[in-house]
Design brief:
The chain is α+β, with helices and mostly antiparallel strands. The chain contains 1 helix and 6 strands. The strands form 3 sheets. Strands 1-6 form a two-stranded antiparallel ribbon. A two-stranded antiparallel ribbon has the order 2-3.
């Protein structure tokens, strides 16, 4: 069984809490429906409009990073690496 990724900001290491919520605001083409949700529960897909967010802003350092760079898999987890690569090529 593959390990679950550890999720944290690639810049400052901040970890989202269970009550953290992001807002679908205008910023990327196709975004801006106003939905609030936990972006890591849906792999960056807004449940309101279906927009897949390429970038995710950190609540601590206020910097945006590619959404996929927040997922940190244990080293040696080949299955998890294949899954992450499949997600990146599907976009």
């Amino acid at each position: 069984m593959a390990s679950q990724p550890h999720i944290h900001c690639p810049r400052c290491q901040w970890e989202p809490r269970i009550d953290s919520r992001w807002y679908c605001a205008p910023g990327e083409p196709g975004s801006g429906c106003g939905t609030r949700w936990h972006t890591f529960w849906t792999a960056g897909c807004c449940p309101g409009c279906g927009h897949f967010w390429e970038m995710t802003q950190c609540f601590s350092c206020k910097q945006s990073s590619p959404h996929q760079s927040w997922y940190h898999y244990p080293s040696g987890d080949d299955e998890a690496q294949r899954r992450q690569e499949a997600l990146e090529t599907a976009r």
